[in-house]
Amino acid sequence: MAATKALVLITGANQGLGFAAATHLANTGRYHLLMAARSREKAEAAIQELQSKSSTVDTAAFTPLVLDVTDDDSIRAAAQEVTDRFGSLDILINNAGISRPADPTLGLRESYRAVFELNVFGVAVMTATFLPLLRASTYPDRRIVNVSSGLGQIGIALSPSSPYNVNAFALPVYRSSKTAVNMITAVDAVTLAKEGILAVAVDPGYCRTNFNGNRGLKDPVLGAQAIVRAATEGNPKEMVGSFVDDDNSLAEFGWQ
């Protein structure tokens, strides 16, 4: 079944920034959204909630997708489902992530492994697995959007003037996972630009979500606007190597 609208896959689409980004995209009426979550029940519940928020949303513009980014078999099965139903993918938004392990009793090595498993390895395997579908797309503005964080930038971590430096927020496990995501994005940005596929990192800012126990400074609806901009706006040729953030505050610290 070929999608008549641009096809967008969002991981972790059932809550937080993923759900907020899906809401923005759905309200434009220009996209068919693959709402990826760890269970079909969660994906379908998110679709129902999104549809209940707006009577103008196209009810046929959603497909639930079971996808656990820490499980390679789940990723391959999801890619096969997209292949069978649509044959290609236009935009991939790697949004799913965690700030710390769910189990607070884990040792240091296990804590790093748990966060990197989702935040880093999940992004890398998702991109590699879905890249053939992006390559099969004839959409003129194919993109891979990796949701990162300014906390992963070395310049911000070391800057005495940054309110998000290491003295304010140590978070070595989370910070280092997002630094790794930034490097994955930088390499993909250069290598895939030759194929007309933009890979770009985005920092939505410190938003109130389950991710941080709802302690963020702003509503995820606002933070998700940066994700949407990274996925749909701007000249892709000019965005290679850029970092899309919520308020353009990262420029002074460099793309590190």
> What is the CATH superfamily?
NAD(P)-binding Rossmann-like Domain
CATH architecture: 3-Layer(aba) Sandwich
Strand order of the largest sheet: 3-2-1-4-5-6-7
End-to-end gap: 41 Å
Strand content: 5-15%
Structural class: alpha/beta
Question: What is the string of helix and strand elements?
Answer: EHEHEHEHEHHEHHE
CATH class: Alpha Beta
Family: Belongs to the short-chain dehydrogenases/reductases (SDR) family.
Domain Ketoreductase: 6-160
GO biological process, one term: secondary metabolic process
Organism: Aspergillus sclerotiicarbonarius (strain CBS 121057 / IBT 28362)
Per-chain topology:
Layout: E1 6-10, H1 16-28, E2 31-37, H2 40-53, E3 62-66, H3 72-85, E4 91-94, H4 108-135, E5 142-147, H5 154-158, H6 172-193, E6 197-203, H7 220-232, H8 236-239, E7 243-245
Parallel strand pairs: 1-2, 1-4, 2-3, 4-5, 5-6, 6-7
Helix pairs in contact: 1-7, 3-4, 4-6
